[in-house]
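Our platform keeps sequence and structure together, in a single record for each protein. Such a record has a labelled line for the sequence and another for the backbone structure tokens. Nothing more is needed to write down the fold, since each code stands for a local backbone conformation. For reference, a complete record is included directly beneath this paragraph:
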Amino acid sequence: MNIVQFTKIATVFFVAVLSACAQHPQTRIVYRHAPACTDRATTTIAENVSAIAARRYALASSAAERAARISLACATDDTAAQFDDRWRAANALVVAAELAHQANNVPRAHRLLHEGYAIMHTLRPPDHTSALTSTLIAQKLDTARRDMQGQWAYW
């Protein structure tokens, strides 16, 4: 191998190395999944415990209503999932109403109660509902009825 061939090979190698170094590094895309809609509603409800414990009823009522709105937005075409989301929303609206009543915001309490009760009253549970779930649904519907009659649940 003579010097001319060596120079050509070294030049080609040098150009290849140089061009490899000059290329842009690969961009790495990291996908972050937003929490599922249902998880956001459930988290909002769970975070509300401290406000209720501190008897900050107006704040707790607002958070419960926010959770209800999230659940309503979660409703999908799937009948079972739609029932779950709408029931969770209706329940949260009734809770928000009870908390608003506790905070002496009666007009808001009535508005939220009527909205939550209307949703509860129109929902039909899926056929595969367990006896326990049916009992809990009936109890919550009864609580909402008593609220509607002025026998408010207190927190």
